[in-house]
Amino acid sequence: MYTPKNMAMTDQQAITGFITQNSFGLMVSSSLNATHIPFVLDATVGEKGVLYGHVSRANPHWQEIKNQRVLVVFSGAHSYISPTWYNAKPAVPTWNYAAVHCYGVASLLSDAETQVILDRLVAQYEPNLLQDKQIMPDDYQQKLRQGIVGFKIVIDEIQAKEKLGQHKSMDDQQGVFNGLSASANTDASQLAHYMAQRDIGKGR
What we know:
By secondary structure, the protein is of the alpha+beta class. Helices cover 31% and strands 31% of the residues.
């Protein structure tokens, strides 16, 4: 991913938070086969962390990724940027966004390991569901688990980018932030929230 130095996200804690908040990733293998799936990140394992996921056993992608290096793309907030929001003229439209690319070698998990990861995935979004055996009885889970394949990706490289207009003047940054904040578009408001959260591209 092309990442100018002034747009690089280098803080590991920020990257971990980004992946956790935007955990629905796109896994791409060397053949350019791609699968959209949710991931669980364990940032405490290894030098750069480990991603855990699962795919349907009917999806041949799991056979392809075994012991192979893959790319996982996590996309965050993004939005159209109007040139009318800039103080400086002339100007053109652009698109601002944040994204993280993770590279690493994938390996398959055992059935027991897969269950642990499934529990962690559910706990990340609806922890109370794990205790509800009426909705998710153990035998039902075990039956469905036969239809999936769990895997992990040991991350060996991370590319993280925040293109949030931080290269613009303070006046232009302020104009963009105000424009995004005032917009009725959901993407725009989400990007403004992310910029405020990260304190980047807000201007004065």
